Amino acid sequence: MKPFEYRSPADAAAAVRSVAGNPAAVFLGGGTNLVDHLKLGVAAPDLVVHVADLLPAGIEELDGGTLRIGAGVRNSDLAADRRVRERFPVLSQALLSGASGQLRNMATTGGNPLQRTRCVYFQDVTTPCNKRQPGSGCSAVGGWTRHHAVLGASEHCLAVHPSDMAVAMAALDARVRVLGPDGERTIPFTGLHRLPAGTPERDTVLEHGDLITAIDLPPLPLARRSAYRKVRDRASYAFALVSVAAAVEVRDGVITDARVAFGGVAHVPWRAHRAERVLRGAPATEETYRAAADAELADARPADGPDGGNAFKIPLLRRTLAATLRGLVREDAR
Amino acid sequence: MSEITVHVDGTPRRLTVDTRTTLLDALRERLGVTSPKKGCDHGQCGACTVLSGGRRVLSCLTLAVTQDGARVVTAEGLAAHDRPDGERPAGGQRSDDDGLHPVQRAFVDCDAFQCGYCTPGQVVSAVGMLDEFARGWPSAVTEGTRPPRLDRAEVAERMSGNLCRCAAYVNIVPAVQRAAAESGTAAPGAGVAE
Ligand SMILES: Cc1cc2nc3c(=O)[nH]c(=O)nc-3n(C[C@H](O)[C@H](O)[C@H](O)COP(=O)(O)OP(=O)(O)OC[C@H]3O[C@@H](n4cnc5c(N)ncnc54)[C@H](O)[C@@H]3O)c2cc1C
Ligand code: SF4
Ligand code: FES
Ligand code: FES
């Protein structure tokens, strides 16, 4: 591991100044991704600025009912919060489906959406990877792709975003509060991550020195009926092959409103707007769930690979979407 | 290099560390506290689990410099008799005449290990987990907002961050349930079931 200087500044503004002033500086949240990357050589900063303890660690209810989640709130505390469990069960479930008890006690609300892909080639510095080393090539093209993207990938990168929490946040119309060298701004959560196109080295729209200070969850009454369903290679402590975050409102057997997002299938937590448009106003039936999946997956492109590739993700995602919606509709009928 | 003070199993320990040193390496290589084990060094096995500020965390993914002033408890320090400051053992439970924490006692009684390499991490993780359970925290297998019961599925899910290469799980789960039942850690309204 390359030597680095460590700083633990007093406040967010000082942390932003430290990182903005040094192109080789990074923020350290809970460290569950960054410390791993320091060991692997995937990250080699010369300044590490600890922010986990200086960022707000509480969940505040604003006038109008928005929940403001401090970026220092640990994943376990967020999942256990009573208001989150009642109003946004999909978020609590997504968090609890991720990582392990120990990791959730460490991981922060700010660090979780910024964790980097688990693509094995990205994590192995001996293999070419456009995300780690722009222009070096993508080892996943023609390589192992079981865990790679079927939506929105480019020839330069097939990686998927690994976060479960981010999928729920994308479905819930969350907003990200950012403090940068030029001051504060708010961006929609669905605008935080970007597709790889020709520059897979950039996971998000954030600029160097931008610090996430909070994530806001505006009131969304239909989210009381919401769920997260994750499919993986083992029952627990594994990343998603595919996952679905969904919320629905049903009246007299008709879906009046819906929010849907997919995980494990794209470089971003994939908000399924096309599926939502099919669902709104349609009867809550298996045909509707199928049509919603058809609409969203029309442009899905599987990747080949010596491991059999990832074409299995498309039917798996269809069934996972239907199962999630079916479960919610049943719950709604209670 | 940074100078830090970490309270390890009740004793303040002052040391100078390279900023790259993990808490796991500081404990094992610098302070001679070898109960936290290095299984994978990448957050994937749980063998290095310790309590920091009363919560279970992975010492292999924690930089030692972030732990200045922290209270760290390892498997060695779980039982009160090992602790010079005479504090109650972690999890608020009493140790027995052999100086074992109730979770350690249950692991012995249930034969919840083979080689023992994962055991200190399992035991510390179980202490942290039982405390989370007592506070009413849900898990991925908890239904709705009802208080969970510490059945097999709940224990397996909550302990999934601790792998056992010997696959002693069939005895680890009952050991954790026994410790919960005997210490009354189970939350009010929550039952312990097979
Ligand atoms: C074995 C294992 C299994 C896992 N399984 C899952 C899983 O199933 N599902 C899942 O979703 N996740 C999983 N994770 C990943 C885990 O959830 C993330 O590592 C964690 O959420 C990252 O948060 P952190 O605070 O530790 O971030 P850090 O590791 O501290 O930082 C991550 C990145 O974000 C940057 N950063 C941190 N905080 C901020 C901030 N406030 N503003 C701007 N930049 C910031 C850092 O510079 C770094 O680039 C797993 C991890 C491990 C090790
Ligand atoms: S898929 Fe993306 S992250 Fe993986 S090797 Fe290719 S460029 Fe790198
Ligand atoms: S050694 Fe820390 S999790 Fe394996
Ligand atoms: S007892 Fe051998 S690894 Fe668990």
TrEMBL record, chain A:
PROSITE patterns, per the entry: FAD_PCMH
One Pfam family in the UniProt entry: CO_deh_flav_C
Domain FAD-binding PCMH-type intervals: 1-222
Molecular function terms from GO: FAD binding; oxidoreductase activity
Domain of life assignment: Bacteria
KW Ribosomal protein (keyword) present: no
Keyword Zinc set for record: no
Keywords tagged on the record: Oxidoreductase
Protein name: FAD-binding molybdopterin dehydrogenase
Native source species: Kitasatospora phosalacinea
TrEMBL record, chain B:
Region (Disordered): 77-98
Transmembrane region(s): none
Gene3D superfamilies (UniProt xref): 3.10.20.30, [2Fe-2S]-binding domain
Gene Ontology MF term list: 2 iron, 2 sulfur cluster binding; metal ion binding; oxidoreductase activity, acting on the aldehyde or oxo group of donors
Entry-linked Pfam families: Fer2, Fer2_2
Annotated 2Fe-2S ferredoxin-type domain residues: 2-78
Keyword line: 2Fe-2S, Iron, Iron-sulfur, Metal-binding, Oxidoreductase
PROSITE patterns with a match to the protein in the record: 2FE2S_FER_1, 2FE2S_FER_2
Compositional bias of kind Basic and acidic residues: 79-98
Name used for this protein in its record: Oxidoreductase
Organism in which the protein naturally occurs: Kitasatospora phosalacinea
Lineage: Bacteria, Bacillati, Actinomycetota, Actinomycetes, Kitasatosporales
